[in-house]
Design a protein that fits this description.
Blueprint: H1 3-30, H2 36-57, H3 66-85, H4 91-99, H5 101-112, H6 119-136, H7 147-169, H8 175-194, H9 203-232, H10 237-244, H11 247-258, H12 265-281, H13 287-293
Helix pairs in contact: 1-9, 1-10, 1-11, 2-8, 2-9, 3-7, 3-8, 4-6, 4-7, 5-7, 5-10, 6-10, 6-12, 8-9
């Protein structure tokens, strides 16, 4: 895989995690007006509609492929495990357990794809995981394992499968149709699970949440899921997982700006380690290559 393409993939996925990091603060504001399941349903429905309109304007032949359906099911399961897990465990433990996928992805890549994982990548993954641990762990909350922890652990497994499946299928199908199928299936399942909460939704609260749900649906869902597929086209699953670890770093940054939340010293060190792991994963360009491009 060319180094220029690899760098392109890193930049795309970094943008994706930057936008995803903003969703925690935006979602927290939205949840003042609507329930988590309704927010999830609206987010993916708006994402589906906006991507559908975009593809129509491009005169694309819109198809729902089998791969898109599978990816949509995987995506919904990951979100459902995390959403229901949060009911029984803390946000801190959820962030940490979900991030364990950064360890599972290279193992899955080695077993399923028979790819050799270099020592440098393993070192980068270790630093990223160490940074995530410092950023998210609060030892006071780790008193034992409950059903919520198990559900979130299943979320981490599902996210691992999602990253691996994307890396496998993204070279074989049209990215826009794959993204549309993923969004459509996720939105359908989301409404099925939230149908009992529709009666409690008021028009006033829906109106007040609209600016935030529009951002979450169009920018943080339709745009990012499409870019995610494009970015992973140029990267290995392991390197993709390393970059996704930036999400909690950006989440804390946006929380500091918009919600006035502060990082502890240990969390700050964790954030620095995650960013450092990203720089370690960057491809190296030789001097001769730079001169040729100049």
């Amino acid at each position: 895989m060319g180094k220029e393409k690899e760098l392109k993939g890193i930049l795309i996925l970094t943008l994706v995690t930057l936008i995803w990091g903003s969703t925690f603060s935006v979602s927290k504001i939205s949840l003042q007006y609507i329930s988590p399941l309704i927010l999830l349903s609206l987010r993916f429905t708006l994402g589906t509609i906006s991507l559908f309109i975009y593809l129509l304007l491009l005169s694309n032949n819109i198809k729902i492929s089998k791969s898109g359906v599978i990816l949509g099911i995987i995506n919904f399961l990951a979100i459902a495990f995390q959403t229901f897990g949060l009911r029984y465990t803390t946000a801190t433990k959820t962030a940490f357990i979900t991030g364990i996928s950064v360890l599972f992805v290279p193992l899955g890549e080695k077993i399923l794809f028979k790819n050799k994982i270099s020592k440098k990548v393993w070192l980068t993954i270790f630093l990223a995981f160490l940074g995530l641990s410092l950023l998210t762990i609060d030892l006071k909350e780790f008193s034992g394992i409950n059903i919520g922890d198990i559900l979130v652990f299943l979320c981490a497994i599902t996210y691992t499968l999602q990253i691996l499946f994307i890396s496998y299928i993204v070279h074989r199908v049209d990215i826009s149709n794959l993204a549309f199928g993923e969004l459509l299936i996720t939105s359908i399942f989301s409404w099925i699970f939230s149908i009992t909460e529709i009666s409690n939704l008021s028009f006033k609260n829906l109106y007040l949440s609209l600016p935030f749900t529009l951002y979450l649906g169009i920018v943080a869902t339709a745009l990012t899921l499409t870019l995610q597929l494009l970015g992973q086209k140029y990267l290995s699953p392991s390197k993709s997982a390393i970059i996704y670890n930036l999400e909690p770093v950006f989440a804390f940054l946006f929380a500091r700006i918009f919600l006035n939340e502060r990082l502890r010293v240990g969390q700050g060190i964790g954030a620095i380690l995650i960013v450092f792991s990203l720089f370690l994963s960057l491809p190296k360009f030789s001097t001769s290559n730079k001169q040729e491009r100049e």
